[in-house]
């Protein structure tokens, strides 16, 4: 009896072993078939579309297939995973070369971005500060002054516009986009729809604008825009909560993928607000978390890293912290952050000024360019390029030339800082005034 039972058990065990081996063999065959199919697709892709192949190899999500295949612990080759994504790659590939070229042009030596994309509401605040009404004519006069500053393109490679400006002409009837192109400046467009409260968070916000983004982006491309900007924010005093960071990162990644599908280089901007009494170490810690999450989701959304630009905040102490940091400290913390979080495939890091004074923003940028970096490290300032210019203009036609000179002075100073050659000599008192506004809304 016991012998019979033992034999039966042995048979069962043998069946299990054979069965499992069969399943194992079948899996091996299946994987090797997938791998070959994937590889031949890869080589076809490489032959036909160099850029799409670079997308494939630069996209860490493909290597993550071990996590998504039903808990299998055997790692699929990254090329096999291509089979899951043909549609994405085909669409993206149509713009891949152009995206890479646009990003490289914007990230060219000695140049940076002029952010002049204030929403009508924010532009109204700027105009009010010099006693002007917030009318379309006044906004047009101010933006005409900015884009027609002689030889601006020597220092400025891209200009971010608000939608109104993208479709606007100058006071003399020339399209603003055409003037930029004549100056050698790439026109860009702010595509987000602003911040709203994030339900379920600690009084934090999220950025809207994904609905209809694909068709809007296609229309902006038709109108001459070649890059886009989406600014979301993270607040340190309010947490930041894991929910707010995840939402910010996911929104940026979806926006980036949609922009690339429509030929626009996305500027990825999770602004870590200056608000708060925290020290520089806390900013560093939050920034590390935020950028880790941003790159995780950019990869998950198959974003082509070679065709994006970043717009980070510099790592500084909170605006209300009594311990201030020198440009060298800011540079050291910020570069440490970038080196541990940003792949070298990304062509350009274009910092925002975030309420720093014009001179402070330039000094900090200069300190970051004292040694070669893997990416172009430059500026995408609004307040730190425009403040003195706006005040000098004061809404008076006779001051246009002086205001343009003030803009060119700042643009040149930041161009030198991009090259690591700014000395900070001869700056005006106005340029040294901080512009931090608590709870600032762009
Ligand atoms: P600031 O340089 O004034 O912070 O502006 C940043 C910005 O996002 C504008 O596009």
From TrEMBL:
It catalyses: beta-D-fructose 1,6-bisphosphate = D-glyceraldehyde 3-phosphate + dihydroxyacetone phosphate. InterPro entries: Aldolase_I_AS, Aldolase_TIM, FBA_I. It is found in: Plastid, Chloroplast, Plastoglobule. GO terms for cellular component: plastoglobule. Its EC number is 4.1.2.13. One of its GO terms (biological process) is glycolytic process. Keywords: Chloroplast, Glycolysis, Lyase, Methylation, Plastid, Schiff base. PROSITE patterns: ALDOLASE_CLASS_I (PS00158). Pathway: Carbohydrate degradation; glycolysis; D-glyceraldehyde 3-phosphate and glycerone phosphate from D-glucose: step 4/4. It is an enzyme of class 4 (lyase). Pfam families: Glycolytic. Plays a key role in glycolysis and gluconeogenesis. Belongs to the class I fructose-bisphosphate aldolase family. NCBIfam families: FrucBisAld_I (NF033379). This is Fructose-bisphosphate aldolase.
């Amino acid at each position: 009896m016991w012998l019979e039972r033992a034999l039966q058990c042995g048979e069962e065990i043998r069946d299990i072993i054979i069965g499992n081996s069969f399943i194992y063999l079948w899996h091996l065959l299946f994987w090797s078939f997938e791998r070959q199919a994937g590889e031949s697709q890869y080589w076809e892709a490489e032959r036909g579309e160099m850029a799409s192949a670079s997308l494939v190899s630069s996209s860490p999500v493909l290597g993550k297939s071990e996590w998504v295949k039903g808990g299998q612990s055997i790692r699929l080759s990254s090329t096999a995973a291509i089979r899951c994504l043909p549609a994405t790659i085909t669409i993206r590939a149509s713009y891949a070369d152009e995206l890479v070229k646009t990003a490289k042009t914007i990230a060219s030596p000695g140049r940076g971005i002029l952010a002049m994309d204030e929403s009508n509401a924010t532009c109204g605040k700027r105009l009010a500060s010099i006693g002007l009404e917030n009318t379309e004519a006044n906004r047009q006069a101010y933006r005409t002054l900015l884009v027609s500053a002689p030889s601006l393109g020597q220092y400025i490679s891209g200009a971010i516009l608000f939608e109104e400006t993208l479709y606007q002409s100058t006071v003399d009837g020339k399209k603003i986009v055409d003037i930029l192109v004549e100056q050698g400046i790439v026109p860009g467009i702010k595509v987000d729809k602003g911040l709203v409260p994030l339900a379920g968070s600690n009084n934090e916000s999220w950025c809207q604008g994904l609905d209809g983004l694909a068709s809007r982006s296609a229309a902006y491309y038709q109108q001459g825009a070649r890059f886009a900007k989406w600014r979301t924010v993270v607040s340190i005093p309010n947490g930041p909560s894991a929910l707010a960071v995840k939402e910010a990162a996911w929104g940026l990644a979806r926006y980036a993928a949609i922009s690339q599908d429509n030929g626009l280089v996305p500027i990825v901007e999770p602004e870590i607000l200056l608000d708060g009494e925290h020290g520089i170490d806390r900013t560093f810690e939050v920034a590390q978390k935020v950028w880790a999450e941003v790159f995780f989701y950019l990869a998950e959304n198959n974003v082509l890293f070679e065709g994006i630009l970043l717009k980070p905040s510099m790592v500084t102490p909170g605006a209300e912290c009594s311990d201030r940091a020198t440009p060298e400290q800011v540079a050291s913390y910020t570069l440490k952050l970038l080196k541990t979080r940003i792949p070298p495939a990304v062509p350009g890091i274009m910092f925002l000024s975030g309420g720093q004074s014009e001179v402070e923003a330039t000094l900090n940028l200069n300190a970051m360019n004292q040694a070669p970096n893997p990416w172009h490290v430059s500026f995408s300032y609004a307040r730190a390029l425009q403040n003195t210019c706006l005040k000098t203009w004061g809404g008076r036609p006779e001051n246009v030339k002086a205001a343009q000179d003030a803009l060119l002075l700042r643009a040149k100073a930041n161009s030198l800082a991009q090259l690591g050659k700014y000395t900070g000599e001869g700056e005006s008192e106005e340029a040294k005034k901080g512009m931090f506004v608590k709870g600032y809304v762009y």
